[in-house]
Design a protein that fits this description.
By secondary structure, this protein is mainly α. 57% of the residues lie in helices and 12% in strands. The chain has one domain. It contains seven helices and three strands. A three-stranded parallel sheet has the order 2-1-3, with helices on both faces.
């Protein structure tokens, strides 16, 4: 008798403030209630992709937002539309394609959901390069 492979949902998040993780946990809980036959896996994108620099970059980001919120707001607004700054930020911040490919190969999800924008950008890059056919 052949056992059917359990479908998985990979939920990517980032511990840069509590909101991303809270949404990921809420999604996982809702999936367990509504679709008990599905398996959901939560992964901290930054911890997985950048394990050595994650703590430092998280600290710098949170301190920057706390101490210089106007700079964060400016960069956030400037990168909402395609322009030179947003393209440069995408290139810098969407590193880790190889590690993300490894994670997808290991977890083998049917669907990937992201509560963290950088993770969504990397998944998008993987798909655009033809390195993944997972449904985002």
């Amino acid at each position: 008798m052949k056992v059917a492979k359990k479908e998985k949902i990979l939920i990517l998040t980032g511990n840069y403030g509590a909101g991303h993780v809270q949404v990921a946990n809420a999604l996982q809980e809702a999936i367990q209630i509504r679709f008990p036959t599905l398996e959901s896996v939560i992964v901290d994108f930054m911890e997985w992709v950048h394990p050595y620099s994650n703590q430092v970059s998280r600290f710098l980001f949170l301190q920057g937002v706390k101490n210089f919120p106007e700079i964060y707001g400016y960069i956030y607004q400037k990168t909402r539309k395609m322009n030179t700054l947003s393209n440069m930020m995408k290139k810098i911040l969407s590193t880790g394609i190889g590690r993300m490919k490894t994670l997808i190969d290991e977890v083998q999800p049917t669907v990937v959901v992201s509560t963290f924008p950088l993770a969504a950008a990397v998944i998008s890059k993987l798909k655009s390069y033809g390195l993944s056919n997972v449904y985002p």
